[in-house]
Write a structure and sequence with these properties.
Blueprint (H helix, E strand, L loop, with lengths): L2 H8 L5 H14 L12 H15 L4 H5 L1 E4 L2 E4 L9 H16 L4 E5 L5 H9 L5 E6 L2 H14 L3 E5 L11 E6 L29 H13 E10 L5 H11 L2 E8 L5 E8 L1
Parallel strand pairs: 3-4, 3-6, 4-5, 6-7
Antiparallel strand pairs: 1-2, 7-9, 8-9
Helix pairs in contact: 5-6
Length: 268
Amino acid sequence: MKLKDWLNVNREVFAQRDLNFLMSVLMDRKSAGFTDDCMLDDSDMDYLLSVKNLYSEGYPIAYILRQEQFFGLDFFVEPGVLIPRPETEIITEEALDIVNKNSINFVLDLCCGISCIAIVIAKHANKSLNIFASDISRQALMVSRKNIDSYNVPVRLIRSDLFSGFRKESFDLIVANPPYVETDYIKGSLSFEPRIALDGRSNGFYFIEKILRNAHKYLKSKGYLIVEIGYNHRGLLNRFIENTGIYDIVKWIKDYSSYTRGVILRLK
């Protein structure tokens, strides 16, 4: 069977993005010059059947392929770590913009997962930085180490329950992607991912609020805090800012569907 014939037969099984990603990974496995008009050998057919079966059971394509693309880079992932999302690319782009336009030296990727934010900043910043990435999950940090070594970037890993592993007034910029999914919404494909990386308790705001209440202690004067949030958290966050007076809101970050998915704050 030719690859293009396999695609036609299985096109309705996969989401288009996932199918494109699968084809990209398959092409990388083959020799140069392999196209969709080439014949699939027995090994290819066995591989594609295995992928199809797992995908049909609901497994995320990133776990099946042990790979996810983020900010134009390929990252190793495995079951037990959070799969990077397109929304986080937008957060990362805003963080990189702040790094490149301000006097930023010390950066923390908090709740780092596979450290995609830290790695992208390290690769694309227009200056040398001291970058730290932290997570409470040992598995996330082991996967982070693989990705950091793969790209040979100077990112230091720290196992920490939020800020417990750090000294106060340490960072010019903290970027956080905490668990923020409401407990009752962790179902379907999300149920395959680690609950510790997703579960933000009843309203999804538990860890966001913990970060907001403590980040100012670990920021240097006029430091920046960027937090990824759920689409329904803007009101809660706005009230927190108004009631505490700790931060100024620099910018609300919107996703590709124009939902608010993050915020840039600056220490007063």
